[in-house]
Automatic annotation (TrEMBL):
Species assigned in the record: Microbulbifer donghaiensis
Keywords: NAD, Oxidoreductase
Record-level GO BP terms: aldehyde metabolic process
Identification of the protein by name: Aldehyde dehydrogenase
Signal peptide: none
All copies of domain Aldehyde dehydrogenase, residue ranges: 23-437
Organism classification: Bacteria, Pseudomonadati, Pseudomonadota, Gammaproteobacteria, Cellvibrionales
Length: 460
């Protein structure tokens, strides 16, 4: 299957899905040897073209090659290697007990692939967020269509070029495009849709899926709080927060969105964050080779608009032409202001100062459930209390974002930050159906359950 160089006019989405479904029904994709081979091919695609992938990530988002490698390419190697290592175990039959009324029999759970799945990616990690869900989709034995984000055009074009050269063309297709192409794809009946992006489009995806009773995984966003207690190690916290917030110029779905702390903490923490940021990107981050750019002009302008919502402590420079927004820390922001109402998704970190640390849970719980929650404290009971009282998709104690590195942790949102999860075996489960099977034999057929239910069988 080829992608659609001619755009939506050349995209016959119905024929595309029908072709993939026919191939799926041939049973080829169910073979573990085929799945392994496709995973190895995906790895080869990345390894043989690594410099090109790092180059398109720089083109789309000015990612430093080291950052592109760390957060996108090497994360994918990890996903693939983990899937190859555990595939046999994930795909095995799971024995279950059989009750006495059903004896003699064997009961087991048999994982089976769902069929033809759609994966819609976002632009901020345009490679990783597209291919990371593909790994479990392959491991579980599915055919898939990938729809990369049109806002990262260089990465989208490279995936569309290389995918058919490495993977089985009868099973995988990359469809490039924007709203018209995505709309055409969403009209089709899929066996699963995994969508990464904002909640507004998430609702469109879910409504389209509902027409066909298609299950969805929605990897959305939200305002992820970063809570710093008075007893935190301020130096370490500042470094990790600056890294979590300013990597990829803040365009990370799990970046800390805002800081929550007391005045006593703010006095020590904010200068330490400024210092940590200078150490990473120098006095003028615009000239740093390691600092990213905002994906497009419109988003740079949107971020510039937030700067009027409070006092800028450091940063605040914007160069829309260059899509540059400096790492910025803000104070005295009203909780009613846009910067505290909308997901920031950029390198601006507002600080909300509470008069008493005990109010953090109330503050967090007064808002939508976030995708991530961070709490910095040296006291386990403080961390336990915050985590047990506040719901979030994922959480990290004394760091930001690092849960992403653990293959055995499910990655997903809750409430308005999403539904369903993937990564490691959780991804395999997302793209599989776990079929309950009972295997009986034709011996010993007690007539107790068959009518007529006379007094000989039952006395109520
Ligand atoms: P988006 O919702 O604008 O776009 C995502 C995809 O949807 C794109 O492929 C796009 O072509 C398609 N799309 C856009 N408008 C559409 C429409 N009207 N109909 C059908 N399809 C349409 O999201 P975005 O701006 O790319 O990403 C930003 C958001 O994504 C943030 O909220 C962020 O937190 C979230 N995000 C979440 C994760 C996660 O893993 N949970 C990762 C990255 C980003």
């Amino acid at each position: 299957m080829a992608s659609n160089p001619g755009g939506v006019d050349e995209l016959n989405a119905a024929a595309l899905v029908a072709g993939l479904r026919t191939y799926f029904r041939s049973g080829t994709t169910a073979e573990l040897s085929w799945r392994r081979q496709q995973l190895r091919q995906l790895r080869r695609m990345l390894a043989e073209n690594e410099p090109r992938f790092l180059q398109v990530l720089r083109q789309d988002l000015h990612k430093a090659p080291q950052e592109g490698f760390m957060t996108e390419v090497s994360a994918l190697y990890g996903d693939i290697d983990h899937a190859l290592k555990h595939l046999k175990k994930w795909a095995r039959l799971r024995r279950a007990s059989t009750p006495i009324v059903a004896q003699p029999a064997k009961s087991y759970v048999q994982p089976e692939p769902l069929g033809v799945v759609l994966i819609i990616g976002a632009w901020n990690y345009p490679l990783q967020l597209l291919l990371s869900p593909l790994v479990p989709a392959i491991a579980a034995g599915n055919c898939a269509v990938l729809k990369p984000s049109e806002l990262a055009p260089a990465t989208s074009a490279l995936v569309a070029e290389l995918l058919p050269r490495y993977l089985d063309r009868d099973a995988f297709t990359c469809v490039e495009g924007a709203v018209p192409e995505t709309t055409a794809l969403l009209e089709q009946r899929w066996d699963h849709i995994l969508y990464t992006g904002g909640g507004r489009v998430g609702k469109i995806v879910m409504a389209a899926a509902a027409r066909h009773l298609t299950p969805v995984t929605l990897e959305l966003g939200g305002k992820s709080p970063c809570i710093v207690a008075d007893d935190a190690n301020m130096e370490i916290a500042a470094r990790r927060i600056a890294w979590g917030k300013f990597t990829n110029a803040g365009q990370t779905c799990i970046a800390p969105d805002y800081l929550l702390c007391t005045e006593r903490t703010a006095e020590r923490l904010l200068p330490a964050i400024e210092q940590a940021t200078r150490e990473m990107f120098g006095d003028d981050p615009q000239r740093s080779a390691d600092y990213g750019r905002i994906v497009n002009r419109a988003h740079a302008e949107r971020l510039a608009g937030f700067l009027a919502d409070g006092d800028v402590i450091f940063g605040g420079q914007v160069d829309v032409e260059e899509r540059y927004v400096a790492p910025t820390l803000m104070r005295n922001v009203s909780v009613e202001a846009a910067v505290m109402q909308e997901e920031i998704f950029g390198p601006i970190l507002p600080v909300v100062v509470l008069d008493d640390f005990s109010k953090v849970e109330e503050f967090v719980n007064g808002r939508e459930k976030p995708l991530a929650l961070y709490v910095f404290t040296e006291d386990d009971s403080t961390a336990d209390r915050v985590l047990s009282r506040c719901s979030s998709g994922n959480a990290c104690i004394n760091d930001c974002m690092m849960f992403m590195t653990a293959h055995d942790l499910p990655f997903g949102g809750v409430g308005s930050s999403g539904m369903g999860a993937y990564h490691g075996e959780h991804g395999f489960r997302t793209f599989s159906h776990f079929k309950a099977v009972m295997k009986r034999r034709s011996i010993l057929d007690l007539d107790l359950r068959y009518a007529p239910f006379n007094a000989r069988k039952f006395k109520l």
